[in-house]
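Write out this protein's structure.
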Amino acid sequence: MRILITGANRGLGLALAQIGAERGHHIVAGVRDSEQAMEKISELEFSKSISIVPLDVTKEDSVIQAANLVKEQFGTVDVIINNAGILLERDKKIEELNLEQVQLSFDVNLFGPMRVVKHFLPLLLLGDSSSIINISSEAGSFENAYGGDYAYAASKAALNMFSQQLNQYVNGKNIQVYAVHPGWIRTDMGGSNAPGNPIDTANGIFKLIETRLKLESKYVFINHEGKPMAI
């Protein structure tokens, strides 16, 4: 399969690129800084199966250019993994929030995936068995709301709704949509004390894609092992 991964230059995105290539897929790595990404991706064992494409999810022109480039070079994509994300204003009280940072959080975590799907969905529809994976978080769960990380939690909750709406929109087109909680993993965002390994999460996500998991819930919000998450 040909798989587009946004934010593929570090953290979970880099792990997804590595595991995807190892599992025999062609990875289209969407990154803001192509030169920096090349240094990291070239170190991977299956780097020849990874194509780097400039892609800034906060700029619609960049997403359009990336979609046109992928269409010209490869024709189609089979999977979109919206992985690019940020966690800003961590541990800030509501009285202390910088709302410009909140807006930026939504621009990356929600509007970024919306821009990508808007312009790459036509390429996805050319296939006969496709997937859209939006990397979410348990922070976006109403049931697990903990009164903090307002920008991140609210943007991920909105991403879950977008995923649910999108799933309804593509119903009957043989496209599976999941909003996936990756677990607390050791990345720049998760920190070094996190118990989870991004490689394990990446393997779990590819298992979801390859086996086309049948959901046990009417909601598309699941963890990387395919188990339903609390809405």
